[in-house]
Amino acid sequence: MSVERRGDIVITLSYPLVGIGCLLAAIAITFVWPLGPSRRNHVFSEIVLVVLFVAAAGFLWAGGIIPESVSWLTSLFVGLVVGIVAVVFRDVRRFIQHFRYETYKWTHPYYWYGRVGRAVMGGGTRRQRRTR
After folding, report:
1. Residue 10: enclosing H or E segment and its boundaries?
2. CA 64 to CA 111: how far, in whole Å?
3. Minimal CA–CA distance to 99: which of 30, 29, 37?
4. pTM exceeding the 0.85 threshold for the entire prediction
5. What is the pLDDT of residues 2-33, one digit of tens each?
6. What is the extent of the structural domain holding 32?
7. Are 1 and 13 in contact (CB under 8 A)?
């Protein structure tokens, strides 16, 4: 990839280098970037995260790091799936950090995160069957 500006300056970047940069940025956003309670900022980071994973897959395929036996469409699909998994992971982290003890309606995803968390970790109140 080369970028030309004003006809005389040429900057050349290799596809694998850009792909590794996108991948490292996406991993940093997934595991290191701080999570806030604001939904607006979280949606923006989710979009950036998916775009970075898809771009990383595309650049790594174009650079030859991903074998040619894998089609470019499959590579982009894998990047999309990994990006969606990273978004869900960040969403669960955000739930655990900010909203764990809140009460939600059954239509909200955090309601189900709480139910799964209580089933796996134990604790919380459970309905018990009355015995007569």
Report:
1. strand 9-12
2. 43
3. 37
4. no
5. 556 666 666 778 889 999 999 999 999 999 88
6. 2-121
7. yes
